[in-house]
Amino acid sequence: MQTMKRLWEKETLRVIGLMSGTSADGMDAALVDISGFGLDTKVTTLGFVSVPYPENVRNEILRLASGKEGGSHDLCLFSFLLGQLSLEACLAVCEQAGVPKESIDLVGSHGQTLWHIPKAEDYLGRPVRGTFQLGEASIICEGLGCPVVSDFRVRDLAAGGQGAPLVPYAEYLLYRQPDKTVGLQNIGGIGNLTVLPKGGTPEDTFAFDTGPGNMVMDQLMERFTDGKQRYDENGSMASKGQYDESLLAWMLDDPYLKKAPPKSTGREYYGKEYVDALLHRAAGLKPENILATACRFTAECIRVAIESFCPSKPDYLVIGGGGSRNPTLLRDIRAILSIPVLVNEDLGYDSDAKEAVAFAVLANECVHGIPNSVPSVTGARHPVVMGKISL
């Protein structure tokens, strides 16, 4: 309790936010100073690093996230390994920012999602939903000597929500405008859209996963290069191709895209089996045309989301995440949307750091006992304080 009391009494907390996404390419760490909480939250970013995973670690994440391999032995060791890698990312961002690790007051760690089941399945005769993130927080806590907030999604799921998306609460605190409806499209492995109606409250915010972001493109690139390239850097290969209308039509005939929010998705839907089916359908097409079609599909998913499920249409759209670094994807998005399309850097933010910063904000809200979920987004029965605190 003394540790928490010290946090409550400090005017500004130095917080690290950690994010390891569905692309499984590395650990993002953002170092920020946060003053206040709730609507009074103010964030200053001091540093950001993205630490790539070694190839064997990434392969293990993808193996375990397939849902078909790995037992309790593997999951046990993986959770503690990811805890070690999380601590190393914390130390790396401290070094990059030039601050001592002893100055860190708090860490918010998302962990690695291995499986996400927002819709109930029959399990041992009962309908059960669940979500599964690993990355032992106690390793971080021990290494830095400060509290760590982790395992955010499960509390919302227990309250009837989807446990996703989580970032919209932080987005509301940081991006809301009194006279503009703001659209925020993150493009990581999965794409997710948040809309902040002008002058709205957190309850007016709506958000959902739009479909694949980089995930399908990344898997295709790995297969086309026999694993030598994890992603299509700068959209280079896609820029050399033309999207195939027939293949794109098949991709757009997707039940997920037609499903009304709240909704969320992940590798369990757009993973290996999806790409296998895509390549079977695309037999005879050149790799650059298949990749161009997958790129266009990510853009079309965003268009469908805005046109079909946004009661308040954005005045402008801000792209964040790794997809914001892909000029071919940005070209496709701008070609099919009738609103201005910006990137986070246009507003003075770092696109790569956005999600990691969000988990620093969510951790700050948690330790102050402030509900940090948005039921209108996740479908939960009521707001909850998400996150488990390790002291």
Structural notes for this entry:
- By secondary structure, the protein is an alpha/beta fold.
- 40% of the residues lie in helices and 23% in strands.
- Strand 7 (182-187) and strand 8 form a beta hairpin.
- The mean pLDDT is 95.
Largest sheet: 7 strands, mixed
- What is the straight-line distance between the termini? 9 Å
- Secondary structure: number of strands: 12
Structural class: alpha/beta
The CATH architecture of the largest domain would be 2-Layer Sandwich
Count of DSSP-assigned helices: 16
Instruction: Determine the mean pLDDT.
Output: 95
CATH class of the largest domain: Alpha Beta
Oligomer: single chain
Q: Give the helices and strands as they follow along the chain.
A: HEEEHHEEHEHHEEEHHHHHHHEHEHHE
Parts with pLDDT < 50 across at least 5 consecutive residues? none
The percentage helix is 40-55%
Rg for CA atoms: 20 Å
CATH superfamily of the largest domain: ATPase, nucleotide binding domain
Please give the domain count.
2
- Global geometry: globular
Strand content: 15-25%
| CATH-derived topology of the largest domain | Nucleotidyltransferase, domain 5
